[in-house]
């Protein structure tokens, strides 16, 4: 199988994935998304003959758009645009986990400071507050 790997930087995880794919005799094309352009009408030439694409971009915003582009080219992509969107939004993620019956910490959403303080008081301390989007503590 010919596997495309979307990336913005090759870290240890990507190196391990690339090694594993090659050990299993897959042809691999590394696609540095900082150097490619993605057209709404047709895929870039680097995707010619690619059977499936793995998205390993660091930036969530890039991943969200790139998975949509790859999907629009009728190339299977891991993760799908729908999965990427759910994972990028903590509310969507919490709702999906709840719907799937996955045990998670109690979660509340508040839109004002007063409402957030009421939620914190109902939890008690320690308590974790998070924005809906963002990662790596940002």
How would you describe what is shown here?
With 138 residues, the protein is of the alpha/beta class. Helix content is 39%, strand content 14%. It contains five helices and four strands, in the order βαββαβααα. The protein has a four-stranded parallel β-sheet with strand order 2-1-3-4, with helices on both faces. Helix 2 packs antiparallel against helix 3 and helix 3 crosses helix 4. The protein is elongated.
Salient structural properties:
138 residues; alpha/beta; Rossmann fold; 2 domains; four-stranded parallel β-sheet; 5 helices
Could you give a short description of this structure?
The protein is an alpha/beta fold. It has helices at residues 12-23, 60-72, 81-88, 90-99, 113-123, and strands spanning 2-7, 27-32, 52-56, 77-78.
Q: How many whole angstroms does the radius of gyration measure?
A: 19 Å
Mean residue pLDDT: 93
Spans of at least 5 consecutive residues with low confidence: none
CATH architecture of the largest domain: 3-Layer(aba) Sandwich
The secondary-structure element order is: EHEEHEHHH
Count of discrete domains: 2
- Kindly identify the CATH topology of the largest domain: Rossmann fold
Q: Look at the helices and sheets and give the structural class.
A: alpha/beta
In whole angstroms, the N-to-C terminal distance is: 37 Å
CATH class of the largest domain: Alpha Beta
Number of strands: 4
Please state how the strands of the largest beta sheet are arranged side by side.
2-1-3-4
Tally of separate helices: 5
Major pleated sheet: 4 strands, parallel
Beta-strand portion reads 5-15%
């Amino acid at each position: 199988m010919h596997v495309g790997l979307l990336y913005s930087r090759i870290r240890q995880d990507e190196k391990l994935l690339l090694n594993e794919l090659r050990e299993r005799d897959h042809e691999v094309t590394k696609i540095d998304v900082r150097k490619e352009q993605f057209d709404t009408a047709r895929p870039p030439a680097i995707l010619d003959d690619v059977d499936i694409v793995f998205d390993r971009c660091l930036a969530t915003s890039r991943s969200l758009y790139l998975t949509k582009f790859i999907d629009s080219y009728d190339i299977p992509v891991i993760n799908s645009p729908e999965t990427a969107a759910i994972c990028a939004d903590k509310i969507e993620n919490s709702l999906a986990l709840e719907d799937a019956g996955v045990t998670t910490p109690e979660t509340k959403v508040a839109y004002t400071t007063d409402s957030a303080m009421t939620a914190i008081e109902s939890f008690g301390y320690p308590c974790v507050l998070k924005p809906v989007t963002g990662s790596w503590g940002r």
